[in-house]
Amino acid sequence: MSLVKITFPSTPPSSSPNLNPTYVLTLSSPPDHRLTESLLAEFGEALNAIEKDWWVRRREQGTDKPIKNQVGGAVIVRGEGEKFFSNGLDFENSVKNPDFHPTVFNPLYLRLLTFPLVTIAAINGHAFAGGYMIALACDFRVMKKEAAGRKFWCCMNEIDFGAPFPVLFATALRGRVPARVLRDTLLGHRFTSSELYAHGVVDVLSEPSDEGLMGAAQSLSDRYGPKSAGRVWGSIKQDIWSDIRVSAHSHFPPLMGDQAEARAERTFGLKKQDEESKSGERAKL
């Protein structure tokens, strides 16, 4: 069973000209599309397949033309269903692998962040933690309007389950989230679509249906996909986000809560927790 599905443009590369193909990449790991190592690996493979198809289309249609007459294109990233875009990393398993971020997550994140086609996150449902980071890696974001009491949230909720930010997360958030909402983002605020739109994090609010969401994402593809035709969009993003690229290769692991507590014990001469519990037991006697 595929964890990431690709919908290719309906016209094959060798058929009649399609100068602005739209690819749809769907995260498909129910119930909440967790970013496991397997899903992230398939995500990278899907991006490779899309980029290869795009280059084939460009060559089939010819590259000896003005840029406006060459093949551009865009990728829409979405989650399957209507509840979750992605609920984030498979945290319990990711922390077991000390190389998870430098060798698994970070390369995929940089690949998406600097992809040569325009990328659009169609945030179909909740996007938490690493799932929200994936949406922020895209060039544009679309969410549904709130309707009939139904809301979807985007949230960096690591603070609420005791997980520090990896260096890449911290650097990317500084670059992708407006300063006026960065503090609330770090404190785990659950942003609604209307809040994110007001702050400029979400570019378009669609009608509150899956059809409306994908229609709005397609409109962005139609408008901005042709910008990919110049073959430099990926390079421009590599340069503008150079600080994020550098942070992806940092080998300084974040300080977990128990490690922070151990450091406090050393710094302030505190008793270790197990010693305190034993002292308490003796006092009761």
TrEMBL record:
Keywords: Isomerase. Residues 1-20, 263-285 are annotated as: Disordered. The keyword Nuclease does not apply. One of its GO terms (cellular component) is peroxisome. It holds the Pfam family ECH_1. InterPro entries: ClpP/crotonase-like_dom_sf, Enoyl-CoA_hyd/isom_CS, Enoyl-CoA_hydra/iso. One of its GO terms (biological process) is fatty acid beta-oxidation. This is Enoyl-CoA hydratase/isomerase, conserved site. It comes from Phaffia rhodozyma.
